[in-house]
Amino acid sequence: MGSIVTIAGAPTEVFQVYLGGHLGENRSFARLAKGARVRADRMTDYVEAMLRLYLDRRLPEQDFNGFLSQLSDPDLQEFARVAMPEGALVEAGTSEGGSAYAVRELTDEDTPFAKAAARRAGPT
């Protein structure tokens, strides 16, 4: 889930981190990694760092979802925070310049996919 917060006086997109979950047999929802909110402009760095950490910690032949499903909620939160590159974490209620606050929740129309689809569809 994303929101826009003010960091150092500028509106900044941030996303809460949900990990795991799958469809099919024994389906499950992704779990919230509490305390891990990532700046949108650092998301690719975060994903790369998380995958490197997973490769370092996993058992041989263990896929990503299998790795995540074995973690307790506190361990999942620790994994999500340890993988966070410097400067990518946005603490709840704080920011680089003081307090951070939600300006508005992002909607489906805010996503790059929705914006591209709207451009393709043309004026309404």
Describe the structure.
- The protein has 124 residues and is of the alpha+beta class.
- It has one domain (2-121): Sulfite Reductase Hemoprotein, domain 1, CATH 3.30.413.
- It contains four helices and four strands; from the N terminus they run E-E-E-H-H-H-E-H.
- The longest helix is centred in the middle third of the chain and has 15 residues, at 43-57.
- Strands 3-2-1-4 form a four-stranded antiparallel beta sheet.
Question: Main traits of this protein?
Answer:
33% helix, Sulfite Reductase Hemoprotein, domain 1, 124 residues, four-stranded antiparallel sheet
Q: In summary, what is this structure?
A:
The protein has 124 residues and is an alpha+beta fold.
CATH architecture: 2-Layer Sandwich
Major sheet description: 4 strands, antiparallel
The low-confidence runs, each spanning 5 or more residues with pLDDT under 50, are: 95-106
CATH overall fold name: Sulfite Reductase Hemoprotein, domain 1
Shape: globular
Number of helices: 4
**Structural class by sheet pairing and helices:** alpha+beta
Mean pLDDT: 78
N-to-C CA distance: 28 Å
Strand content: 15-25%
Number of separate strands: 4
For the largest beta sheet, what order do the strands appear in spatially?
Answer: 3-2-1-4
CATH domain class: Alpha Beta
Q: What is Rg?
A: 17 Å
Order of helices and strands: EEEHHHEH
Helix content: 25-40%
| Assembly state of the chains shown | single chain
Domain unit count = 1
